[in-house]
Write a structure and sequence with these properties.
The chain has 338 residues and is mainly alpha-helical. The chain folds into two domains: 6-150; 186-333, no CATH class. The chain is built from 17 helices and five strands. It has a three-stranded antiparallel sheet. The protein has a two-stranded antiparallel ribbon with strand order 4-5. Strand 2 and strand 3 (131-134) form a beta hairpin.
């Protein structure tokens, strides 16, 4: 487990978690902010003030539910509401956050999924109620990767809010699907597929599916078994690639190594708590083996239609050196790893 970078561990924390509420995202943004300014010993009330500010701004700009359970609001939502309604002052609001807003999130932040050992005290040590001591692992991220990681946390925060507002409606997943199809009928299809980009990015290790290089701009959403054949936009079959890689691939059959990669990418989604996990489960099966078999079956069907000649990937692509396989999230979700 020593081969992973601080950035890998960070993404593991942000992408995988029980995430019953958005607390983790708010704290992640605060931590990156402290690290960026080189603040390594952060008093508790300073953490509370930043944490409160994140929520205050978020709820002001675009009010969305911050937790999944119907009819419930997070402590932070209530405090922001109280200040807004003039019941308490700003310093009183921050004091409340200090006393009751950080109790769960600060001790629990350094976990990946349900695993509390793997990143215990990796980014900070806490003296509960007093201070956070940030470690070099975090300070380095703040110095070198602040923009990218902050953008990722913000995207993830938005996804959680979207998921919570959907899970609060009655027919959770079906509704999500209906909304998507209405969208597809009404709008430009490519545009609606582009809404999957922030969702898919992290699970794909932030690299192009077909060449393994970083994805920064000109990002296309591609169907692995081609849309011309499958005629659906199910998320299990969508990947991100560079525009030029997508053009090279076109509607060709991909090599079997990309099918294995698609299987691994979908397991990365299955390891998380996003509502589309349920959707993929319903379509492909409730365990890793049946999902792999289902995808391989689709592949065989496409092969029958397209013939056995396949495209092996962008020039120079080699699965052995693909960073996707070296990401912590991929390692953790590989059913062959202990
Ligand atoms: Zn590419």
């Amino acid at each position: 487990m020593d081969n992973f970078s601080p950035s890998d561990y960070w993404k593991g924390i942000v992408l995988y978690g029980l995430n019953a509420a958005t607390y983790k995202m708010a704290l992640a943004k605060c931590l990156l902010g402290f690290a960026k300014t080189g603040l390594d010993d952060v008093p508790w009330d300073r953490v509370a003030a930043s944490f409160y500010q994140e929520y205050r701004q978020r709820l002001h700009e675009n009010p969305m539910p911050q937790m999944g359970m119907r009819g419930r609001r997070t402590v932070l939502e209530r405090i922001v509401q109280e200040e807004k309604g003039g019941l308490i002052s700003r310093p009183q609001a921050i004091e409340k956050v200090c006393n009751e807003g950080l109790n769960d999130v600060v001790p629990r932040f350094q976990t990946i999924g349900a695993n509390a050992d793997i990143v215990r005290n990796y980014f900070y040590e806490m003296e509960f109620g007093k201070s956070l001591k940030l470690k070099d692992t975090l300070l380095t991220l703040g110095e070198n990767e602040f923009d990218e990681l902050t953008a990722e946390v913000t995207a993830r925060w938005g996804l959680l809010e979207g998921a919570f507002s959907i899970s609060r409606s009655q027919e959770n997943y079906e509704l999500a699907n209906d909304i998507r199809y209405i969208y597809l009928r009404q709008g430009d299809r490519r545009q609606s597929l582009a809404t999957n980009i922030p969702f898919l990015m992290g699970y794909q290790g932030n690299v192009c599916f077909y060449c393994g290089e970083a994805l920064v701009e000109d990002i296309h959403v591609d169907h692995v078994p081609p849309w011309q054949i499958v005629r659906h936009d199910e998320v299990w079959n969508l990947v991100l690639s560079h525009g030029h890689c997508n053009l090279q691939k076109s509607d060709k059959l991909v090599g079997p190594h990309f099918v294995q990669k698609l299987i691994a990418r979908n397991e990365n989604i299955m390891g998380s708590n996003h509502p589309w996990k349920k959707k993929i489960e319903a379509l492909l099966g409730n365990n890793a083996n049946s999902r792999a078999t289902a995808i391989e079956h689709h592949y065989e069907q496409v092969k029958i239609v397209r013939g056995p000649d396949y495209w092996g990937g962008s020039k120079g692509y080699n699965p052995e050196t693909d960073p996707f396989y070296r990401r912590l999230v991929t390692f953790l979700n590989n059913p062959d790893n202990p």
